[in-house]
Amino acid sequence: MCRRCAALLLIAGAGLAACRLGGAAPLQPFLAQLSAQAQAGDLLFRHGTEAISQLVRSVDAGDFSHVGLLVAPASPSGPWRVVHATPSEKPGQPDAVVLDTLDFYLHPQRARSYQLYRVAASATARQQAVDWALGQQGRAFDLLDAERGLYCTTLVWQAWRHGGVALEATFTEVMLPLLSGHYLLPDGLRRAPQLQALTPVLPVVPAP
């Protein structure tokens, strides 16, 4: 098994478009619904649609395979966005930290369900966390370096550290021939005591 594939079986990058064979099917129109309580800096966990997402969840024993940080609309009529570290989900896009619209992030092609979490923090801390994460756009998605690698959960965890909040997340020891070390899996982040669920686990419902 290649190092990249072994890594994707373990961490919540979720291996979406990067693991598909052939061209991607055209996206159907979809409008994601977000809780009225949502704020920039909230954590948006999702359960991916690919078979590899099931493998991630079986290793992690949690509900989700990926997480991103909410970014407020750039204008009053603009869309909510999500900054996240992911394998490529678009043709020609590198494996990196990217900024996507909420509709893209939660499209039924790549998400089955989701849940929104809040970090109890000041508006200043929240903005600092978001600004740091946005500043990482283009930084490579990296699972192979357990100490310094950047993947979806560590992007969010580090962002909040730069916002002055040390999330008490639980790292999991992974021991495989091609991948070993302590990794932050989605459930290890979701169970941090500083996080509060704003919604139940919600299904992603395709447009009629």
From TrEMBL:
Keywords, comma-separated and alphabetical: Signal
A Pfam family it matches: Peptidase_C92
Signal peptide (UniProt feature, chain positions): 1-17
Protein name: Permuted papain-like amidase YaeF/Yiix C92 family enzyme
InterPro entries per record: Papain-like_cys_pep_sf, Peptidase_C92
